[in-house]
Amino acid sequence: MRRKIPMMALLVMLTFVIGCSTMTAIVHEVERETLAQIALEDRFPETGGLISDSVSGLQWQVGPDSSTDWMTANLWVENLDGDGWILPSKEDLLGLHEAGVNWNNYGPFYTEGTAVWSDSTSPHGANAWIFDFMVGTGSMANTSESRGNRAFAVRKETGTR
User: Fold this and answer.
1) Dihedral sign, CA of 22, 23, 26, 27?
2) Which domain holds residue 147?
3) Is the pTM above the cut of 0.85?
């Protein structure tokens, strides 16, 4: 004689199985994000506000965590202590993104903003290239725009670039 499993017991078992697989997926995602964070911290050790890139040889500083237009970003970089600091190039910012820096995992580059100004401006200076770490792409933006935009500074580790 075949035994029937009551519908409620079947639903409880199914809920348990689905819940376990969902929980497993969440655990794997947390593990992946933790490993990505560790990888960023290994590649980009930070000491006293100075971030070194062990792969490219660049040094970085993250600017004030407030909305910043391009001119203010440029002035902040020009007034940093030490030689060789400049706004990052498009390639520098793309390199950070390719290394895993993004809206979900800023590593030592943490900021409340989503986009970072570059040194690349339009011929008349009305626009500058900005990289948006939330979206993962760059574009030209009006240099007077500040909302959500931040400044990073970069230089070769020797102090010149």
Assistant:
1) negative
2) 44-156
3) no
DSSP assignment of 86-154 equals BPPPHHHHHHHHHTT-BTTB-GGG--S-SEEEEEEE-TTSSEEEEEETTTTEEEEEETT--TTEE-EEE
Name beta bridge partners: 47.
Answer: 50
- pLDDT tens-digit map of 97-112: 999 999 888 889 999 9
**Domain annotation covers residue 78:** yes
Instruction: State whether 23 and 90 are in the same domain.
Output: no
pLDDT tens for each residue of 41-92: 889 999 999 999 999 999 999 999 999 999 999 999 999 999 999 999 999 9
Q: What is the CATH number of the domain that holds 56?
A: 3.10.100.10
